[in-house]
Design goal:
By secondary structure, this protein is α/β, with parallel strands linked by helices. It has 6 helices and 5 strands. The chain has a 5-stranded parallel beta sheet with strand order 2-1-3-4-5, sandwiched between helices. It is globular.
Amino acid sequence: MKKVAILMGSDSDLPVMQAAANFLDQLGLPYEISIISAHRTPQRLFEFAPKAREKGYGVIIAGAGGAAHLPGMLASLTSLPVIGVPIKSSNSIDGWDSVLSILQMPNGVPVATVALNGAKNAGILAAQILSVNDEKLAKKLELFKAEMSSQVMDKVKRLDEEQADRHQAPKFRP
């Protein structure tokens, strides 16, 4: 089974990126999590990305704040799918700089981009990509989605019951 690389530009990104790891844990998908800064450790980036496929990775999730170059630089150096997670960091412009840095990639260097701080969705998308060739994983994802649907329908039922009770009860009059 291919593993997922979860990378981030700084340890301050870990609270956001942990959501991707938690989802992959839920599915039993192997991953490795580390820090690679496009600006402070570019040599580490240049060593990792070209060899990622031969090291058993199938997808890379990369979170970055501010200028957010990590996902795009990784995508420029590997043919693996890269999922970018824009992170609202202490030096960001309300997160928009990160979103646009990851979203606006040039032709030929695509990066799938999830919502600001959307690491859980990055984990889900990584699993969906890997499930293309893994029926067991695809079944786990189908169960996950069915459970989400069931949770929403439980809430609908509760809300409907509360409304029905409210309409049948005598109205309060002062």
